[in-house]
Every structure is written in C-alpha cells, then in structure tokens.
Write a structure and sequence with these properties.
385 residues; alpha+beta; Butyryl-Coa Dehydrogenase, subunit A, domain 1; Butyryl-CoA Dehydrogenase, subunit A, domain 2; Butyryl-CoA Dehydrogenase, subunit A, domain 3; 5-stranded antiparallel beta sheet; 4-stranded mixed beta sheet; 16% strand
Length: 385
C-alpha cells in the first residue's frame, strides 16, 4: 500500500495551504472584529475583497474544484478536492473555492446557462430550499405543495435556507406534487416569490447564521424549470452524494487541525501555579488524543477519496467517514476545552468560531442516524469491513 501523495496532489495541497495562510488567516481579525466590544464582527468579507480573492483562486486553477470540467469547474479528482477543502476549513474566514451543490449538475443545457453557470461564476446565489418553515429538514416531512396549472406549477408555502444571502439569486425548491417530491428552479424576479432575512450580521449576532426566509404565494413556475424529472427530486445528485460526505469529512479534519494548533499554543504559553500547563499529564494526554483522532479521521477520508478515484463504490465508506469525522471534531472540541481549562468560547478568538462550527455539526443527528442505517444495512447484507 502506498500512502504517499503524488507530486500533483502535493502541489495542489501546497497551493491551498499557502493561500489560506497568506491570504485568508490575515483577514480573520476583520471577521472576528477589532473593536473592544466586537461590535464590528462580521459574517462575511466585503464584496470587493471577496472578488479579489476569487480572482486569485481562479488564476491558481482551484476555482470550482468539485465541479466537473465539462460543467465549467476545475474538475479535480476526489482526493484533490479533499486536500483543498481540508486546508480551507482551517480558517474562520468564510470563503469557498466555487463550491456548487451537485444537485445543479443535473441541469438541462438551458438551465445550465441560466442557473448553474451564474452560480459557479459567483453572479447568482443558489438558495437550497429543502428546510420547512419550522426548521425541519426531514425529506419525508415536506409540507410545501406545487399544483399543476396548464404549463406551469403554482407553489405555495414557506421555506428556510441556510445559504448565504446575495443580491441576485434563485431558489432550488423541493415541493410535493401529485407524483412525489419535485425540485423547481425559481428565479429571483418570479412573481409570487419573495425573500427576507439572511443579510450580513454584525457584532455578537455575527456568531450565528440567520436563515433566509423564502415565501411562495401562488408563485407560477414553468414546467421547463423542473430540475430533473417530476417526482424524482431525491434522485438529483445522488451519484455525487457519497463523495460530498467524504468532502465534509475533510472539512472536519481541517477544523480539528486548526483547533490542535491553537490548543498547542495555549498549552505552551499558559502557566498555573508557576508551572507551564504543558507539563501536566492530563494536558499531554488531551493533545495526544486530539492528534490520534485527527490522524485516524484523515486516513479514513483519504482512503474513501482514493477508492472513489479508482472507480470503486464508496457508499459504505462515505457513511462511515461522515459519522466518524463528525463525532471526531466534537471530541476534539471537548479536549480543547480541557486544555483551555474551560469552554474556549472567548469572543474575538478564532477558537470560538471554530468550536461553535465543530459543535454545530452535532445538530445533524437525524443525518447521522441515516449513516448508521447505511452501515448496519450493508453489514447485514454480508459486507465485510
């Protein structure tokens, strides 16, 4: 077995690493706030600065790393995408390298021009509207309905989206039709479609993401704006879903790596009763546990990505990656709390945002139960682990 990255993969990893350290991390104070009361904390970068960073990443050839070349992206292999995402996750600066939901990969030629390409070019923000107004994201509990009316569908209801707000946008809406759950692409200026909330938050409010509220009142959407086939919304992007779980695992590894870096600095600099805390056995054990968990998680991510690149099915491995890495990053946050001798949620430090991000991943317990079901089901079918 060869665990060595290729020269090309090392170059990709190095490019992403340098970009994060030289361009993104110096901007963390702008996001976290410089004022004593952190009243100037932000949820996103100024548009001018973001446009400058996007230009840099495009010139590096790392824009749209997870988007196939034929759709306008960089088309990196699975391991390459994981390497980039792992590096990007090591900063609190909200920046992605042209990440587009794979649901849009199923756009028709006309839909690609109107929706996918503008989303990839950062001209339009896609609002993924799966979550109901009560905050439920359970696919089996979709309440919004779409009724056929001639060559159109009438959408009525309210959705929430955790997507970032933008001046120009469209919604990717999941609604019930007579043949099942159908996905619709609803452009900004469609009559009966309105949006509220989701704007940039400052001060202490910047710590939590405000959802975008999407209201549909007799919203008339043409048949040609159905994404994929009617009644088969949950087949969209299905072939990409296992890899997305692996990429999410890579992001968890990235967050955990930054937490380890910050915890190490804390352990080396803090003294109690005249003695450096790093000399305490419990602190050394905490650092060792963090490093061990990160290493195990990284190996799981890289193996699953490598299997994907060699054409093997990763459905089972992807479920294990998502389950393990989510639990791993929560464990790391707990160990970091011990090293900081209390919850490391000190406002104004990268630790706060990173730990909140790590622990927020625990709010997807329903999703994790699905991963457990996949793993157990495969075991019962005789799959050898």
């Amino acid at each position: 077995m060869d665990f060595e990255l290729s020269e090309e993969q090392k170059m990709i990893q190095s490019l992403a690493h340098d970009f994060v350290n030289e361009q993104l991390k110096p901007l963390e104070r702008d996001i976290l706030g410089r004022a004593a009361d952190l009243s100037d904390a932000r949820t996103c970068l100024p548009k001018e600065k973001e446009a400058e960073l996007v230009k840099m990443v495009r010139e590096m050839g790392l824009w749209g790393v997870g988007v196939p070349e034929e759709l306008g992206g960089a088309g990196l292999d699975a391991l390459g995408v994981c390497l980039v995402e792992e590096e990007l996750a090591q900063t609190v600066v909200p920046f992605n390298s042209g990440d587009v939901t794979p649901i849009l990969f199923d756009c028709s030629a006309e839909q690609r021009e109107k929706f996918l390409q503008p989303a990839l070019d950062y001209q339009k923000k896609p609002y993924l509207a799966l979550m109901e107004s009560d905050g439920s994201a359970d696919p089996s509990g979709i309440k919004m309905k779409a009724e056929k009316s001639g060559k159109n569908y009438l959408l009525n209801g309210k959705k929430l989206s955790l997507s970032r707000a933008g001046d120009d946008y469209f919604a990717v809406v999941f609604a019930g039709t007579h043949s099942g759950i159908t996905c619709f692409l609803v452009d900004k200026d469609t009559a009966g479609f309105s949006v509220s909330g989701g704007g940039e938050r400052t001060g202490w409010l910047a710590r939590a993401k405000e959802p975008v509220s999407l209201l549909f009142e007799k919203c008339r959407v043409p048949v040609e704006n159905i994404l994929g086939e009617e009644g088969k919304a949950f087949h969209l992007g299905s072939k990409w879903l296992p890899l997305r779980r692996v990429v999410r695992g890579a992001r968890c590894v990235g967050v955990a790596r930054r937490l380890l870096d910050e915890a190490t600095l804390q352990a080396q600099s803090l003294e109690t009763f005249g003695q450096p805390v790093i000399k305490r056995t419990s602190i050394q054990a905490a650092l060792a546990d963090i490093a061990m968990n990160i290493n195990a998680a990284r190996l799981m991510v890289y193996e699953a990505a490598w299997n994907s690149d060699t054409g093997k099915s990763i459905r089972h491995k992807a479920a294990m990656v998502k389950l393990y890495t989510t639990q791993m990053v929560q464990t790391v946050a707990d160990r970091v709390a011990h090293i900081f001798n209390g919850p490391p949620y000190i406002e104004g430090l990268p630790m706060e945002r990173l730990c909140r991000r790590a622990l927020e991943s625990g709010a997807v317990e329903l999703t994790l139960e699905r991963q457990r079901s996949i793993i157990a089901g495969d075991i019962l079918k005789g799959l050898k682990v």
